[in-house]
Specification:
The complex is a heterodimer of chains A (282) and B (286). Chain A has one domain. Chain A is 76% helix and 1% strand. Chain A is built from 13 helices and two strands, in the order H-H-H-H-E-H-H-H-H-E-H-H-H-H-H. The relative contact order of chain A is 0.20. Chain B is mostly helical and 286 residues long. Chain B has one domain (10-217). Chain B has a two-stranded antiparallel sheet with strand order 1-2. In chain B, a hairpin with a 2-residue loop joins strand 1 (127-130) and strand 2. Chain B starts with a helix and ends in a 9-residue tail after the last helix. Classes of the chains: A mainly alpha (282), B mainly alpha (286). The A-B interface holds A 32, 34, 78, 81-82, 84-86, 88-90, 92-94, 96-97, 99-101, 103-105, 207-208, 211, 214, 218, 222, 248, 250-251, 253-258, 261-262, 265 and B 27, 31, 33, 80, 83-84, 87-95, 97-102, 104-106, 109, 218, 222, 225-226, 229, 233, 258-262, 264-266, 268-269, 271-272, 275-276, 279.
């Protein structure tokens, strides 16, 4: 396998994990978040800083994942106060505050970010195997989560929060769990990204990145693990297959978002359900 | 120094107000977070600079800005929002986000990423001094047009038949319809006026900085959302107060906090803090 293929596989896996994480929050639990890139960035910066301080690879990955999950729960607590549109705006805000803060911190490298992140100690192929395996395990985990008791709780909240409350579902608890799980996944993706790219820049984690992650979730079909995974893989590979798309990446993403909402608000999963006559895609 | 900063913050506050009114109008009527509004702000500036450079008249440019954004706003309502009004909340929101990035990227592809400047823009160098502060003509025009336009708008909404019909439609579309108000016409008017006000703000900002670039509306649109929430979604008076307040907070922030936080993020930090204590917004009753 040549270097190009290996790095593409890494990026595919990272984007898949990001989309799966947002799918837990927005798809399973119905909490629209437009600031997922902030948690991706949080994980990446945590990992970069710890790695530069000399922490070993495994410890850094774990610590960054946990720290991001905690940050996610914290933001989740804030989000308990607001619903629907307010939540969407609050999460946009979280993204802006994160980038606005990081940009100005000298100890985080300011505008130029952190560079010279030490090597993970694994070969490029081993790194790729690790992240792809992690992505596959997380797909399995999400499928399990969806069928678990917690998954039912999530979907009850997504359908109708007040009704869920009435039948004694712990709404705040489940929401925090969704935020914790989803953001921890973003943190893990970010930590891996820091080792993979050897540099983290504030602009990588801007609103545009949040929209890109949301695009994968929406195109795949909110709540459908398989649909979102397929969408994340395709959307990452599309600009690679068709070079001309790379220049118009945002245009294509935006157009896909609009068209999907018009013709199949349920995304790919919704389309397949229609075609197969009602069989749901997990 | 401090006095000057406070006074100058009014200029930004007025620009925010002109921009955010369109967002508030749309939210009040349709409960859609019209993020694409910022693209109309940019569209207005592009139409303005192109016409102004072609004809040599900034007044004609302003006319083109108002016309193009007004028409585009109505088209967006008709073709992007109206078909999905019955869908769940997130559908129009995602369409709006999609529209914003498509339009922004479209501007970049059509007009280049580096922006266009005015060939001849005498207004941002011509200055007047008052109270020991120097203002350029555009800053005065920004405050002046905000006061006049928003004042007129409030007067129309509060005292004319059209305005009463509009308010009736906002509070109860079904009832307004049975009293003979055409809610569809109200919506068109809403998008026309909101977008035109946004375009005026866009054109004035372009004159002030002497630059029109694809992303000039981006940060502003998110700030607009913050303002709309702070003001209590759908309230015009709250939006005005929140706009001026955001201008002031940002000015203070860039004086004292710029080493720690990007001033552009301050509005959101404030917003998040406010939402924790008053989730219904600053200027609405619970």
């Amino acid at each position: 396998m040549n270097e190009y293929v290996i790095s593409i596989l890494c990026i595919v896996a990272i984007n898949t994990i990001l989309a799966l994480g947002l799918n837990v929050i927005s798809g399973f639990c119905g909490q629209i978040s437009l600031g997922h890139a902030a948690f991706y960035g949080f994980g990446a910066y945590c990992a970069a800083k710890l790695a530069l301080l000399g922490w070993p690879f495994t410890a850094t990955l774990l610590a960054a994942t946990l720290a991001t999950g905690l940050a996610g729960v914290f933001v989740g607590i804030a989000s308990l106060r607001v619903r629907f549109d307010f939540l969407a705006i609050t999460t946009i805000g979280v993204g802006f505050v994160f980038v606005g803060f990081v940009r100005k911190q000298k100890w985080l490298g300011g505008e130029l970010g952190l560079t010279g992140i030490p090597h993970s100690g694994l070969s490029a192929t081993e790194e790729m195997m690790l992240i792809v395996t992690a992505a596959l395990l997380l797909v399995a985990f999400c499928l399990y989560l969806k069928r678990s008791w917690m998954g039912f709780g999530f979907s009850a909240i997504a359908r109708d929060e007040d009704a869920a409350q009435t039948i004694a579902i712990n709404v705040p608890g489940f929401k925090l769990a969704a935020f914790g799980i989803g953001t921890a996944m973003a943190g893990f993706a970010g930590a891996f990204y820091a080792y993979f790219s050897k540099a983290v820049l504030p602009d990588t984690f801007s609103f545009v990145q949040s929209v890109a992650i949301l695009t994968a979730v929406v195109i795949g079909g909110m709540g459908s693990v398989i649909g979102v995974t397929i969408a994340a893989v395709i959307l990452t590979l599309l600009p690679e297959w068709f070079r001309f798309i790379a220049d118009y990446r945002l245009l294509v993403f935006g157009a896909l978002l609009i068209l999907m909402m018009f013709f199949s608000p349920g995304g790919l999963a919704g389309l397949l359900e229609k075609v197969s006559g009602g069989r749901k895609l997990e | 120094m401090l006095f000057e900063v406070v006074i100058k913050s009014l200029v930004n506050g007025c620009m925010y107000a002109l921009m955010a009114i369109g967002l508030t109008l749309v939210y009040g009527l349709l409960r859609i977070l019209h993020i694409a509004h910022a693209a109309l702000f940019t569209l207005g500036a592009y139409a303005g600079v192109i016409v102004a450079n072609a004809t040599g008249s900034i007044a004609l440019g302003m006319g083109a800005a108002i016309l193009s954004a007004g028409v585009a706003g109505v088209l967006i309502y008709r073709f992007a929002y109206q078909p999905v009004l019955k869908h769940p909340h997130h559908v129009p929101l995602i369409i709006s986000v999609g529209l914003l990035i498509v339009l922004e990227d479209g501007f970049r592809i059509l007009f280049g990423g580096y922006g266009i400047t005015f060939n001849d823009n005498p207004y941002n160098t011509a200055t007047v001094a008052a109270l020991g502060i120097t203002f350029n003509y555009v800053e005065i025009a920004m405050v002046g047009s905000a006061v006049v336009l928003i004042g007129t708008f409030m007067a129309v909404v509060n005292h004319t038949r059209i305005g009463i019909g509009w308010r009736a439609t906002v509070s109860d579309p079904q009832m307004a319809l049975s009293f003979g108000v055409d809610p569809i016409r109200v919506r068109y008017m809403n998008f026309l006026i909101g977008s035109a006000l946004g375009a005026i703000a866009g054109m004035l900002l372009a004159l002030m900085t002497n630059l029109v670039e694809p992303a000039m509306g981006a940060t502003l649109s998110y700030k607009g959302l913050a303002i709309v929430v702070l003001g209590g979604l759908g309230s015009v008076r709250g939006t005005l107060l929140a706009s001026l307040m955001l201008g002031l907070i940002e000015a203070m922030g860039s004086l004292y906090l710029s080493d720690h936080l990007d001033p552009n993020a301050l509005g959101f930090l404030f917003l998040i803090a406010v939402l924790m204590f008053r989730p219904q917004g600053l200027f609405t009753r619970a």
